[in-house]
Write a structure and sequence with these properties.
The chain has 550 residues and is α+β, with helices and mostly antiparallel strands. The chain has ten helices and 20 strands. Helix 8 runs antiparallel to helix 9 and helix 8 runs parallel beside helix 10.
Length: 550
């Protein structure tokens, strides 16, 4: 424990706040050029991919990797440590299932994948019977490795909906996968006082309604993987994406993953042992699951994963939320009549990522966390962010709508309320974590939106026009500090470091009014809010120490 950390702990103790240092600093037994990690393919199919964390100083971005079985392997650095070594490596593998060892060294060279020929008429987006020919748009290669190629195109449907399509092709018989997003690009208006959006209600000004959406692909084998819970199903020559009347409010977006061709619907995923994943500290201080030492705690985690995945009801196209679909009120609501949606204003998706790492090797529980994290992150990246970067309210641009009306219907409130966007509810760090785990570009794009929104609001706050509220109760500065810390670590851009330092300066005991009961009715700082800021401060100090910043 450093002097700075000791001083922080002492100051918090003097303020009456309990503090527990992070977990131990143990790392996998590895050194440059001398490491091996077992990698398991989870799922069926010859192509698999996934993000693999590495300890600091072990692997350089230019170092080749291979498997002991001689499979075709490609690797891409997604994130680096402060010394330039690899923190997260996105690995693609072709050659079968099971477990093999990943190690340093040259292996067989991947032959490359030819981009799919996309012709006019291949993808026809139908909105209320009006077609837009996505195949006739200009498609460019966005990413290319030896084992996959991703093409991208974008445009605007006659309905006014902006669309973005990403088509990824793989070797052999693995089916191609199309990621399609639709977005309402119209900026929102404001209420009379100019301080709140009018986009929080259904049927508001600027909404784009529609009765049905379908994508015609000419392939009867096309099917929707995500989000199939919303009633999406194959139709003759394509897939139904929105089978009933719906709408997109200003800045709202929704997306789908469409599998083209025969083969597994769920793509095979790579995973490593929990001991390696946690020991790297790539997502901070974590310990592998330990039922012998923490029996009740770990059993609660298992039950939580099962409950969050299975205790769902009434599907709707704006679901699944972070916790699956609309949730019943577990605090006493009646399943058949109460469709209240949980508050998802805290870093649930980041928690899912950490639980995924802690439980790797425990197939059932780890895969539950993977399902929750992947679907939750994709949903958040699409629906819960205001995807507008122009208009009258700059503090809204790229902000997260994470709050719904307390006690309101999940079928009516649908993510937005007068409480949002609010820095006390603004999250997004989980998007970056799941980008590292999956390589999904949509998650990185959306994290960038939230990061830029947070940066602008911090640097133009804490009051108008940024409304960062970093001098208020601890949730806002905790969220802002966590987002700025992760943005700095990912990009290396010191502007995020300066924003993080500003949050620390603006959030201190003299700006707070404390209460002693966690269920106090007023909005003074509560112990559980303080704990959020303590964790964020601890992570920021860790980041500064790792980067050598005084």
């Amino acid at each position: 424990m450093t002097v700075r950390r000791i001083l922080l702990v002492l100051s918090l103790i003097l303020a009456g706040v309990g503090f527990h240092p992070g977990a131990g600093r143990a790392q996998p037994s590895a050194s440059p050029g001398n490491w091996r990690v077992p990698v398991t393919v989870w799922g069926e199919g010859s192509y698999a991919s996934g993000g693999i964390p590495f300890p600091r100083g072990v692997l350089r971005p230019e170092d080749p990797v291979r498997t002991t079985g001689g499979e075709l392997v490609t690797a891409e650095t997604l994130a680096k440590w402060g010394d330039g070594s690899v923190r997260w490596l996105f690995v693609e593998m072709y050659g079968g299932g099971g477990t093999r060892w990943l190690e340093p060294g040259e292996g067989p060279k991947a032959p490359g994948v030819k981009p799919r020929a996309i012709r006019a008429g291949d993808f026809r987006l139908m909105v209320d019977g009006v077609a837009a020919d996505l195949g006739a748009a200009r498609w460019t290669v966005e990413r290319e490795s030896g084992l996959s190629v991703r093409q991208r195109a974008e445009g605007v449907h006659p309905s006014g909906l902006a669309w973005t399509a990403r088509l990824t092709s793989f070797p052999g018989s693995a089916p191609a996968r199309l990621r399609l997003t639709l977005r309402n690009p119209r900026p929102t208006g404001t209420t009379r006082n100019g301080n709140q959006p009018t986009s929080n209600v259904l049927g508001c000004e600027g909404t784009i309604p529609f009765a049905r959406i379908a994508l015609l692909t000419g392939e009867d084998s096309a099917r929707v993987r995500w989000s199939k819970e919303n009633g999406c199903e194959p139709i003759e020559g394509g897939v139904s994406l929105a089978p009933g009347p719906m709408e997109l409010r200003p800045g709202e977006q929704f997306g789908w993953e469409i599998v083209l061709g025969p083969g597994p619907e769920d793509p095979p995923v790579l995973e490593v042992p929990a001991e390696w994943a946690c020991g790297t500290r790539a997502l901070g201080a974590l310990e592998p699951v330990n039922t012998a030492m923490f029996g009740d705690y770990e059993r609660n985690n298992v039950a939580g994963a099962i409950g969050l995945r299975d205790n769902r009801n009434r599907p709707h196209w704006r679901n699944p939320r972070e916790h699956g679909e609309d949730q019943r009120d577990w605090d006493g609501g009646v399943l058949e009549t109460d469709f209240q949606t949980h508050n998802n204003e805290y870093e649930a998706i980041l928690t899912y990522a950490k639980q995924r790492l802690r439980t790797m090797g425990n197939s059932a529980t780890s895969h539950d966390w993977y399902y929750l994290g992947e679907t939750g992150a994709r949903h958040f990246a699409s629906v819960d962010i205001y995807h507008i970067h122009e208009g009258p309210l700059q503090w809204m641009q790229g902000a997260a709508f994470q709050h719904v009306k307390h006690g309101g219907s999940g079928q009516e409130s649908r993510h937005r309320s007068v409480f949002s966007p609010n820095m006390a509810h603004q999250t997004g760090r989980g998007l970056l974590a799941w980008y590292y785990l999956t390589g999904d570009p949509l998650l990185l794009d959306s994290f960038g939106e939230v990061a830029e929104n947070t940066y602008w609001r911090v640097m133009n706050g804490p009051n108008m026009p940024g409304i960062s509220n970093t001098d208020g109760e601890e949730r806002a500065p905790a969220n802002a500090l966590g987002l700025m810390t992760d943005s700095w670590l990912h990009t290396g851009n010191d502007k995020y470091l300066e924003a993080a330092k500003r949050v620390v300066r603006e959030s201190h005991a003299k700006t707070k009014a404390y209460v002693t009961q966690p269920n106090a009715s007023d909005w003074k700082a509560k112990p559980w809010m303080i704990s959020m800021l303590v964790v964020a401060l601890d992570e920021f100090i860790d980041a500064c120490e790792e980067r050598g910043v005084p």
